[in-house]
Amino acid sequence: MKPLKQVVKAKSFKYKNIKAHQLIKLEHYKKIKDQAFLVFFKGLTLRVIIAGF
Asked: Which of 7, 16, 26, 49 is 20 to 30 A away from residue 1, measured at CA?
């Protein structure tokens, strides 16, 4: 019975680590996406300002 508990614990621990890793990856991609949007928005507002002159 004891080895089975260890296997179950190891699998659940591995699953938690994978889930945490995916969450970190998702957060990283979200930051990149936000930065890209800000750069795009800045360029867009710059064009509007230049077009206004």
From this structure: 16
